[in-house]
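Hi C.,

You asked whether I'd gotten around to modeling the 534-residue construct. I have! Everything is below, sequence then structure, no commentary in between.
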Amino acid sequence: MSKHEFFFKIATSADEFEQIHRLNYQTFSEEIPQHQKNEEQKLVDQFHAENTYIICVKENEVIGMTAIRDNRPFSLDKKIGPVEQSLPFPVQSPCEVRLLSVKKEYRHGRVFLGLAQFLIKYCLKKGYDIAFISGTVRQLKLYGQLGFQPFANLTGTDEARFQPMYLTKKTFDESIAGRILPPTIPFLPGPVQVSEKVMNALGKAPISHRSDHYKEKLEKAKSLLGQLVNCKHVHLFLGSGTLANDVVAGQLSLENGRGLILTNGEFGSRLVEQAGRFGLDFDVLEKDWGQAFSRAEIISKLSPETRWIWSVHSETSSGMLNNLDLLKDISKQYQLKLCLDCISSLGALKINLDGVFLTTGVSGKAIRALTGLSFVFHNHEVQPSRTLPKYLDLGTYMAKGSIPFSQSSNLLEALLTALEDINEETFEKVVTTHAYLKNQLKQFGFTIVSEEHSSPIILTIEMPNSISSSVIGDTLSNHGYQLHYESDYLKRRNWIQIACIDNYATEDLEKMANLLNRVITYETAALKQAIYET
């Protein structure tokens, strides 16, 4: 059987529910005489309206299923009393799993295994800490292999006996099913997978940020960052990229004249908001998401009072890469101070900040360290300001040797370790991954946003209006592939994104792309069938 022959999902369509009722009947009326037979050969569960069904699909056929609900009382509560009273440990957020069923011809283990693995990911995402089930005594060995543990007394009749059982993350992890469950692979712009070396560095004993040892490590990190982007100065801040951009806004508030902010995506819009909050005097050149800025358009927005330009380099929201060479050329020609948000591109692309006034970056994306540090790069001397908030004053950091306030040696250790692993191969890997996935997705016929000017950091796929990007993203997530789809700005446009900044095996890229195509193809076909039948 091909590894892509079937997949698992949450049931959503009328046809899927119809098949669920028939499979329910086949299992629990005909095979296990728990319910009466009927002419319709359908069994609608008493809790159908409350159930979430996980199903296994082969082509258009539902070949396996299980149902989850968290409303009390559980069916098991009615049989043995409140389930918590029969357990030796506390329960906070339980759910009940029922109707575990697979068609006879597919009971070779892979379908049961897939249902269990999908189930555990779904439960963890929902925040459940334990799942209860009434397991038929005919399949106790199978339930044990999936991680279910028996408790309390048997229930049911002589013809259909059931064992109360529970499943937790711990019992699943220790089971056969848990031990062979592949780790989740994140295709996110951040956070990315963090290496064991980086995590070990994070766990080192903290040292004082005033010690000579800390200062040596900080200078080494600053040197590596500066070399990475060809920039003279850089300072580290405890906080996110938003903090670093606020630091830039603060510096721009000290400049005379007007500015120009370029926006063609979510993060350009955020620069506009941050500039507004600082009361900066500026114009805005706004383009549709994913549309490139031309030289003529930028120049047309300049005025005699324009003194600076602020732009995002890699606009992650659409997968757009803005032309850095063009921005540097215009800034040089018109003697403007160029500021850049390189939060997504730092560590993923080759960047030359020679001639750039101020630039921001972070530790938790392509740098592959831990979230928590942000950077501001600059090539000029900066003096302390008497008007800026002290924590946002870049000049204060420069005057104090980059250590004006308490800092985290643990985050610094992790950053140093991550920086030491960045090399030419790192950048080549990002480009290669992007090219491979782009080719695969185009072969499948997907619509790629910003295709002409796409950043190699991330691919953005436009979903058909009839298909929910959240449904597709949830399905891939429960299969162990974590795509970027839950941000509000993506949901509004029904987009899904696949980041390319991690170290992926080609086999994993192929599996993820094929599954994505299979899920979208299935959902599209199911929708067409539903429209046809109506």
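If it helps when you're writing up: The radius of gyration is 28 Å.

Thanks,
B.
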